[in-house]
Amino acid sequence: MIVTKDERPKSRNHDFYLFHALMMLSMTMLFLPVTGTSKQNIPRLKLTYKDLLLSNSCIPFLGSSEGLDFQTTLLDEERGRLLLGAKDHIFLLSLVDINKNFKKIYWPAAKERVELCKLAGKDANTECANFIRVLQPYNKTHVYVCGTGAFHPVCGYIDLGIYKEEVMFKLDTHHLESGRLKCPFDPQQPFASVMTDEYLYSGTASDFLGKDTAFTRSLGPTHDHHYIRTDISEHHWLNGAKFIGTFPIPDTYNPDDDKIYFFFRESSQEGSTSDKTILSRVGRVCKNDVGGQRSLINKWTTFLKARLICSIPGSDGADTYFDELQDIYLLPTRDERNPVVYGVFTTTSSIFKGSAVCVYSMADIRAVFNGPYAHKESADHRWVQYDGRIPYPRPGTCPSKTYDPLIKSTRDFPDDVISFIKRHPVMYKSVYPVVGGPTFKRINVDYRLTQIVVDHVVAEDGQYDVMFLGTDVGTVLKVVSISKEKWKMEEVVLEELHIFKHSSVILNMELSLKQQQLYIGSRDGLAQLSLHRCDTYGKACADCCLARDPYCAWDGNACSRYAPTSKRRARRQDVKYGDPITQCWDIEDSISHEAADEKVIFGIEFNSTFLECIPKSQQASIKWYIQRSGDEYREELYIVQDMQYCFLN
Ligand SMILES: *[C@@H]1O[C@H](CO)[C@@H](O)[C@H](O)[C@H]1NC(C)=O
Ligand SMILES: *[C@@H]1O[C@H](CO)[C@@H](O)[C@H](O)[C@H]1NC(C)=O
For the segment 381-391, what is each residue's pLDDT rounded down to a tens digit? Predict the structure, then answer.
């Protein structure tokens, strides 16, 4: 099957006359449908940075610059804007076009702080500056912002004015406050925060050295401050925790049960002290926790945590664990109590390099929190299942008048509840992925996954969750996991996109459903990317169908965005099997030879010319022909293809 397009530049004749010894090379792309033995895990479409720019579906932010660390974003869909926190800067961008009339605030660290930071041996460029780490909506007019302030965190308010009036964008420099326990000291450290009802929940290190880590609540309405944190005295509450994400999630219809869930990884010392490993965890606290009365004063009294497992069976029978949580994304469902939890994990091992995506349900997470507690007799003992008496109310339950009129607040908890939770913050059972193992994995590749965003897409033949996965080399993978017969899943990599010119760790991804755009932040830049570029799959029904992209369908003329509301006729799509025979059997031009995708490159004799020999579509092949000036016929070139290089013979 050959699909075609003529890309000959208009200036061809002009060039032709200018150079005598001109050599013309033309390229024919053959699209070969691969049925049955489709190459697993090879992206259907691989676009370089240049290809992406040409496709008009990716716009780099012009304010980008090396080392600016675009790692904090705040999306405001309603007003169509994005706040972006970077090194010494906060930007205000339009979601439609990030380069149109953007505004910025310059907020460097205090000079004396920069000097002290450098004296402490930190790096002047990558550490001793004000890296913005918190951008949270505070009230109708103000956004709360915190920066690392050269290892001396500072917070303040940005005035954005009232909606629909002229946009303000001003940092209130008269009311800056300490950012300790709200914002990390170290710009590189993973960190999570969320603001709800004017309270800020943060998981971070509390000091310069980053040894003590805490999950805290601060701020709040003026009449009702309840600063509260995790207990420090007990070793196993948190141990060098790196916080990845935190979210308010209601547990039942009773608002008293509302909880804050947080996801993190931490060191674990099991049994012997030498046996130190990293574990990933989910933790939770009640929103209405105000601490204990006689013990655990201003400390959480409802804190519990459980282990998140993401593993595959190894060749030797023992499981291989992806233990280091890198990112969490909650895919909303119709029920706000039950978002789907997507996690990106990497391995700790230096021998076995890999990343995986594991998916969890809130029901499974709650079941583990409702299950047995873990018990550790002393530092030398292992964790075992706690079999003793459990005090009332069950530790970890939120206080609620509707359940027990005598327990209106956590201060009313009996002493045995408080002392129990102090010693038993860990659940005995672990949370396993809904399908038992990873939904997607990448093993033995020279990059790691760092970020995830998921979009629920309605296609002609079903509903699909499309994952956008950021890597540490500046690429984004677009992946769909398709369930087949007998619970079997098929991973289909739709696209591999080079978002940034240079390989740069992707630090943040924000999804705008309204704009159908992703906003991708890295060490050196920010870019906006369309969720789909259907026309790049090709100009024929078969290409569109083979792509298996839930966003795209053949509309009779082109491969275009599929909208479930549009008239059903003539929309051809087969995400599940990608079989062009059933979808495009009656469409003639898809089997015509004349329409082959053709590209012309001019070369000068005895000089070298670069010929692309790896097709963008991994299921296509490229042929080059040589045609000398004046000649009528073309001669096929034999090219030796050695992975990335082509040699002319
Ligand atoms: C929002 O908070 C800021 C900072 O505390 C305050 O100055 C402002 O008046 C508040 N705005 C509204 C609408 O409550
Ligand atoms: C060969 O190509 C290079 C770069 O395109 C150019 O600078 C050079 O002049 C060319 N040599 C000849 C002999 O045309």
Answer: 888 999 999 99
Is the CB of residue 222 below 6 angstroms from any atom belonging to ligand 2?
no
CA pair distance 106, 121, nearest whole angstrom: 25
Helices and strands in the chain: count of H runs, count of E runs: 7, 43
Q: Which ligand is nearest to the CA of 158?
A: 1
Spans of all domains in the chain: 16-26+593-648
Backbone angles phi, psi at 440, to 5 degrees: -150, 140
CA–CA separation, 71 and 65 (whole Å): 13
- Of 136, 138, 140, 142, best ligand 1 pocket probe by most atoms within 8 Å of the beta carbon: 142
Report the pocket of ligand 1 as residue ranges, CB < 6 Å.
Answer: 138-142, 157
Name the DSSP class of 323: -
Is 288 in contact with 398 (CB distance < 8 Å)? Answer: yes
For the CA of 20, the nearest ligand: 2
What's the gap in Å between 147 CA and the centre of ligand 1? 20
| Distance of CA 476 from the midpoint of ligand 1 (Å) | 39
| Whether the predicted pLDDT of 88 surpasses 80 | yes
Q: Which pair of structure tokens corresponds to residue 73?
A: 């974003």
For all residues of the chain together, what is the average pLDDT?
84
Residues 460-505: tens digit of each pLDDT: 888 999 999 999 999 999 999 888 776 678 889 999 999 999 899 9
Q: In angstroms, rounded to a whole number, what is the distance separating the alpha carbons of residues 208 and 184?
A: 9
Return d(Cα 498, Cα 524) in angstroms, integer. Answer: 14
